[in-house]
Specification:
Blueprint (H helix, E strand, L loop, with lengths): L1 E3 L5 H12 L8 H9 L3 E8 L2 E11 L9 E9 L8 H15 L5 E3 L6 H9 L21
Parallel strand pairs: 4-5
Antiparallel strand pairs: 1-2, 2-3, 3-4
InterPro entries: Acyl_CoA_acyltransferase (IPR016181), Bact_Acetyltransf (IPR050832), GNAT_dom (IPR000182)
GO molecular function: acyltransferase activity, transferring groups other than amino-acyl groups
Protein name: GNAT superfamily N-acetyltransferase
């Protein structure tokens, strides 16, 4: 079952993010989950199996001017707990993200994935994403130029 995350899911989501990134600075709060989901343009989803949260995905709408008022969607932080991978749960999360974007009349849905995750790339291709259509670039906060 896929549903919007609740504040009470914070610790489990933090654990999933630790699995994804290995970053000890991950900090997921109940308040932030509520704030994010209260916005109409962002949704943090979780997928459950037998009452246990097994994965999560964040999808945000980006306001654009290219196609009138049509936004585009960005998927971030897709992670399924290791013991549950390969059971279709990621596909369920991606379908929820697509439905969210379809309802918002998005022109496209995009995501980035670490170059070190070929198994994730294969999954995203199976979900219909084209890995060779565009090239992604990223700059993290420590590299930001300040004026």
């Amino acid at each position: 079952m896929v549903r919007a995350a609740l504040g009470s899911d914070a610790a489990t989501i933090a654990g999933l993010y630790h699995q994804l990134t290995g970053n000890p600075d991950v900090c997921v709060s109940a308040t932030r989950i509520a704030d994010v989901n209260a916005r109409g343009d962002t949704r943090l989803f979780v997928v459950e199996q037998a009452g246990h949260i097994c994965g999560t995905l964040l999808v945000s709408l980006c306001h654009d001017v290219m196609f009138g008022s049509q936004p585009f969607g960005v998927v971030e932080n897709v992670v399924i707990a290791a013991p549950y991978q390969g059971q279709g749960l990621g596909t369920q999360l991606m379908a929820a993200a697509e439905a969210f974007c379809h309802a918002a009349d998005c022109s496209k849905l995009m995501l980035m994935s670490s170059v070190r995750r070929p198994e994730a790339h294969a999954f995203f291709k199976r979900c219909g994403f084209a890995g060779d259509a565009k090239r992604a670039f990223v700059k993290y906060r420590p590299q930001f130029q300040t004026a």
